[in-house]
Specification:
Helix content is about 40%, strand content about 15%. It is of the alpha/beta class. It has an eight-stranded mixed beta sheet with strand order 3-4-2-1-5-7-8-6, sandwiched between helices. Helix 6 packs across helix 7. The chain is globular, with a radius of gyration of 16 Å. The structure holds adenosine-5'-triphosphate and magnesium ion (MG).
Length: about 220
């Protein structure tokens, strides 16, 4: 299987759905990256999802006359809240807010996207664009053509309940297949010639399998 590791960098979006195990996953990845770096340079860049932090914004945006613009930036800041929660200030995991900071940030960092998005405000401000598409945008900005989305299911499940191992983004767009990703993500991946591996974060060995290019349980959006 094609590896999610290019030029020593791996971008991982850590879904809000994994909030209960999120910190364990961060610690696991920190230890893995430290160990791996003894052989080959490896930097893991974690991008937080929104999870429960984004729900109040979504509810407010439905109940009040808040503009999409306001809701968009509040939702981006919900990712910051999850990022702070994941780092928790105790594991030595740096929080970075620009691409330039990544190189000095060690083997694992958590990227907070607000400033990057403000500087290059080209994504639509709708609920079709949330943390999955933002993670793809940031990965592209860093120069990576793939990223891993960690979530609480094994990947995209079809209507018969079977896991889809690989699906072309073109097919997702044509069939309006959404699965467990942002509505906008397939279009963004196609426009930017990117791919994405959807992996169940409850099984850390699957994450390292994807990083190392080994066959594993996941869905690849190609
Ligand atoms: N066809 C499908 N295949 C897989 N999961 C699906 C599908 N349709 C809906 N889902 C749901 O999508 C959920 C995962 O997406 P969700 O947006 O809740 O989590 P996340 O992306 O990890 O978190 P966040 O968006 O907060 O960062 C799964 O728990 C599952 O219930
Ligand atoms: Mg989601």
């Amino acid at each position: 299987m094609e590896s999610a590791r290019c030029k020593g960098k791996v971008i991982i979006k850590l879904g809000g759905s994994l909030i209960e195990k999120g910190r364990d996953i961060v610690r696991f990845l920190r230890d893995y990256a430290e160990e791996e770096s003894k052989k080959n340079a490896l930097t893991i860049i974690l991008i937080p999802g929104g999870g429960p932090f984004v729900e109040p914004v979504r509810n407010l945006s439905e109940d009040t006359s808040m503009s999409e613009e306001t809701a968009h930036w509040m939702a981006v800041l919900a990712m910051h809240q999850y990022g702070l929660f994941l780092a928790n200030g105790e594991f030595g995991i740096p929080l970075v807010e620009s691409v330039d900071e990544i190189d000095g940030a060690g083997h694992v960092c958590i990227l907070l996207p607000y400033k990057i998005l403000k500087a290059e405000d080209c994504l639509p401000h709708t609920w079709d664009v949330t943390s999955d598409t933002i993670a793809a945008f940031v990965a592209n900005k860093i120069g990576e053509k793939t990223f891993i989305k960690l979530t609480d299911v094994d990947g995209i499940i079809d209507e018969k309940g079977h896991l889809i191992g690989e699906i072309p983004v073109k097919e997702m767009i044509e069939k309006e297949e959404r699965g467990c990703v942002d509505a906008e993500l397939p279009r963004f991946l196609m426009q930017n010639k990117m791919s994405c591996f959807i992996v169940n974060g409850n099984f850390p060995n699957r994450i390292t399998d994807v990083i190392e290019g080994k066959e594993t349980v996941c869905t690849k959006l190609s």
